[in-house]
Design goal:
Elements: E1 6-7, E2 14-16, E3 20-25, E4 28-33, H1 35-48, E5 59-60, E6 63-69, E7 72-76, H2 78-87, H3 116-132, H4 138-145, H5 153-162
Antiparallel strand pairs: 1-2, 2-3, 3-4, 5-6, 6-7
Length: 164
């Protein structure tokens, strides 16, 4: 690339420069680096392309990005979690200590089938959370994902439990 960036072999939508990283998603670019380097690359790109600068990123692929102080960046998926809790009718749920219930789930009848599409969507949403900002639920979600082919109400109750 004429600006001196190398395409990352393992992530083809990521370009790495000396002091800057550019992530490409469809037609959006997110630049990571020192402000002076970012400004320089923005100028160079705007000379070559029709660029609209949206300013500092606050949301990126459902990740909420916060800069509480100089040199500190935090990320969460609170908005995404709120959306999926509403979708599954769980906006009033309360937090749990563990993403899986301890011991056997006495409420559930293992022979009763549940909606496979709904189960799969819930698992996919939890996987996205686990990969983004909630690695603590990864084991539980992986275990529950193995039942996507033929989910029962017992596993649906466990999925709901994992949502806190």
């Amino acid at each position: 690339m004429s600006l001196g960036f190398q395409r990352c072999l393992s992530y083809p939508c990521v370009y790495v420069g000396k002091d800057l990283i550019i992530a490409v998603y469809v037609d959006d670019l997110t630049l990571f680096g020192l402000k002076s380097e970012i400004d320089q690359v923005k100028r160079a790109l705007s000379e070559r392309l029709d660029v609209k600068d949206l300013g500092t990123a606050h949301m990126l692929l459902s990740l909420h990005i916060c800069r509480p102080s100089e040199g500190v960046i935090t990320m969460d998926q609170i908005h995404y979690l709120d959306e999926i809790l509403k979708e599954f009718g769980m906006e009033d749920c309360r937090g749990k200590v563990s993403p899986l219930p301890v011991g056997e789930d006495k409420e559930a009848d293992c022979n009763v089938s549940c909606d496979q599409a709904k189960y799969g969507k819930a698992i996919g949403s939890l996987l996205y959370l686990a990969n983004g900002t909630c690695p603590d639920v990864a084991f539980a979600v992986g275990k529950m994902a193995s039942y996507c082919e033929n989910p029962t109400m017992a596993y649906w109750y466990r999925v709901r439990y994992a949502y806190f």
